[in-house]
Task: inverse folding
């Protein structure tokens, strides 16, 4: 079978051959975005081992990597969404990876915070409170795909740091 369909934001078919293209492979979170249910959650789960890997670097390196993923993600999301013919296809999950990395900036490395960061990010990404919902509806292209998750990551980062500070 060389077509996978989605039931979340879009049911547009994605040919499996897209995974052979490195840009699509990144956009689809190394295949994590191909899950038929909750691809955004699986994309965020895919971010955890990547976070564990890059969290070992100095904070400034972590921030540079995160910023690079955000900037590259704008192009990657735009490229893949145009190829699919669907704005913000649910299979595109590099934005979730970037959002989770933002959530985890300067957070102590501990499984409690890794899981809490995951839950906070998924909360803001799924519920999309204002202004996240406004960005999601009104900013298009690769920037729009990335921006709502960047903001969800920032909300999660602030909430996580407030909890860490007061505990």
Result:
């Amino acid at each position: 079978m060389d077509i996978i369909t989605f039931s979340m934001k879009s049911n547009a078919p994605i040919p499996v051959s897209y995974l052979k293209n490195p840009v699509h492979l990144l956009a689809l979170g190394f295949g994590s975005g191909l899950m038929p249910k909750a691809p955004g959650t699986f994309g965020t789960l895919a971010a955890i081992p990547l976070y564990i890997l890059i969290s070992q670097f100095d904070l400034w390196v972590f921030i540079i990597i995160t910023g690079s993923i955000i900037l590259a993600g704008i192009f990657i999301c735009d490229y893949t969404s145009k190829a699919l013919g669907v704005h913000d296809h649910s299979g595109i999950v590099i934005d979730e990876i970037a959002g989770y990395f933002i959530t985890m900036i300067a957070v102590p490395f501990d499984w409690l915070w890794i899981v809490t960061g995951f839950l906070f990010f998924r909360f803001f990404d799924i519920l999309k409170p204002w202004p996240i919902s406004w960005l999601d509806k009104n900013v298009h292209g690769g920037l729009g795909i990335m921006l709502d998750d960047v903001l969800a990551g920032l909300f999660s980062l602030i909430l996580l740091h407030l909890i860490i500070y007061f505990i």
Summary: The chain has seven helices and two strands.
